Here is the input.
Amino acid sequence: MGTLYQSIEVLSKEKGIEPQIIRDAVKDAMLVAARKHFQTEENLVADFDATGAIQIYGVRRVVSEVADPAHEISVDAARAVKPDAEVDSEVRFLKPTEALGRISAQTFKQVILQKVREAERENIYSEYSGRVGELVTCIVKRLEGQDLVADLGKTEARVPKKEQSKLESFSVGDRIRSVIKSVEKAGKNAGVIVSRAAPELVMRLFEQEVPEIYDNTVVIKGCAREAGERTKIAVSSRDRDVDSVGACVGMKGMRVQSIIRELRGEKIDIIEFNDDPVVFATHALSPAKISRVSILDAIEKHMEVIVDDTQLSLAIGKKGQNVRLAAKLLGWRIDIKSEEEKRQEVESQMALVVPGAPVSVLLDHGLAEGIVEKLMTAGIPTVERLGSMTPEQLDELGIGPEMVENIQSAVNGYYGQFEGSVEDSAEAAVEETAEAGVGESGEPAAPESGDQAAPLAAGDETKTAPAETGAKSVEDEPESENESVTIESTERSGGGEGRGN
Here is the structure.
């Protein structure tokens, strides 16, 4: 039976399982097979004898009077087997293992395999559960449908379809760098799950490529990613003399370009972190230029961003990607509106507050006081409501044709005063445009230098965005403090080192 011991030792080394665990599994398997074969209710135990062979024993308890023959034995009968047997002790009876047939052997084998698999899963879980988020290198071993199975050395890891980037495809034998996403103990996907689509992958790659991040001079504050398309990563410097964005970009973009190559050309926006959510939002929404940001609800983390009409599509991004990633990076809900949309919203709100001019203003335009009182009694409080009514509707209210003519004349007089003021304003605007467009020499006047920032909106929680919040090219030295850098792969940007997006 030394062969059984040798087999246990070999299996324990191969699977990385303690030999005692396998010995206990063999005992359990033998008991299951014995119970199935003997079909008895008595207590059975399995144990290794002095020669290393595994034996099955029936166990009975010694009692003065036997009430349950399947589990109890009298003192005299027990002493015939074990001379020193006493009351409340146990006596073992050897069971013939030779009687176990082919079916029992198959049951034994299945139980052994199940116990070994459980022990192996427990070992894998204990080893890898504390390494979630760690960057690992594995080799693609095989394809199972749309999933990849990769070799981690001690075990296999699975890369599900949802954890793969849209830009990538791998073949058997390819080496891939990925992060450990999760470790499952049981279920269909038991084992180690690794990911190529998680934001943690980009963060680990930056930690490897940027020494300032590795030594904690530059800190990654957040990362939002849509794998295969775009990533926004926020960084902050603990040293006043170290530019966080510049450190991540590297000389001529070398550091970030190596990460882009690893991600197969995925775009990366490197953004400077700011504790002020308003300033951080203007950085995160780059390359769009933001007019102003208003905090709608600080507790619920809800903000409104106003951009110029020409910047709206850029701020939203393709299929809403830019604002979606910015909102994920900030952890705020962001509403983006153009200047025109905001103006219309304000006008509609004002219309609700001031629904229209009262009918009483028509007294100044020749309408009799009695008619005004009659209209208000009939539920017509404003000039706008009165102007929208037809003569037939007024007639139903008991207003005669002469009164209708008086009403029409008064309403026309009321609206006529606004037409004159509009024409005067239009003429004044034309004159100002003509004067501003032509200088004293008759040539068009040159525009004033410098970009004008949008004015501050009312309220303490509204700030003007900086004049330049767009992304910059990697080659260009910044004139002011870096806010964000948008990087694309050299292949997709025409061979350059990097460019603003």
